[in-house]
Amino acid sequence: MPMNTSPNLIEQSFERAASRCADLTPLVYQRLFEQHPDTRTMFRSQGSELVQGSMLALTIEAILDFAGERRGHFRLIACEVISHDAYGTSRELFIAFFAVIRDTLRDLLADEWLPEIAQAWDQLLVEIEAFAGVPA
After folding, report:
1. pLDDT higher than 80, residue 111
2. Which of 134, 124, 130, 15 lies closest to 65, judged by CA?
3. FRET pair for 51, CA 20 to 30 Å: which of 33, 39, 40, 69?
4. DSSP-based three-state secondary structure for 68
5. Higher pLDDT residue, 136 or 95?
6. Is residue 1 predicted with pLDDT exceeding 50?
7. At what angle do helices 48-67 and 91-109 cross, to 10 degrees?
8. Cα(88)–Cα(56) distance, rounded to whole angstroms?
9. Residue 88: φ, ψ to 5°
10. Nearest 5°: phi and psi at 14?
11. 3 pLDDT above the threshold of 50
12. How far is CA 99 from the centre of its chain?
């Protein structure tokens, strides 16, 4: 393992993806809109690319903190569950966004998507669901 590679498998998946793709935003939202067509209308306003980029950046920051040291950014997940409830976004759809990010990384990494990375993501999604209070 190279010295500059994080031992955290979630971080590794983002680092590897960053070496293959400068901006995940279009890939993530294309997948989101394909899997959940109703979400397309949530981003109809002018400047939606900025909103999408910002939302994805904050989500990735929260994921990395949640999977890592939990210094505070991960709390954004709980706050956003509540604000998205207010927008009428179901908790299931809120959580689906995290799976969309995972699936986008998996497709980007292809042969570098190792079983241990897949397992780390599966575990992370279970923990985020529990943290966000999504009924099983």
Report:
1. yes
2. 124
3. 69
4. coil
5. 95
6. no
7. 80
8. 19
9. 90, 15
10. -70, -40
11. no
12. 7
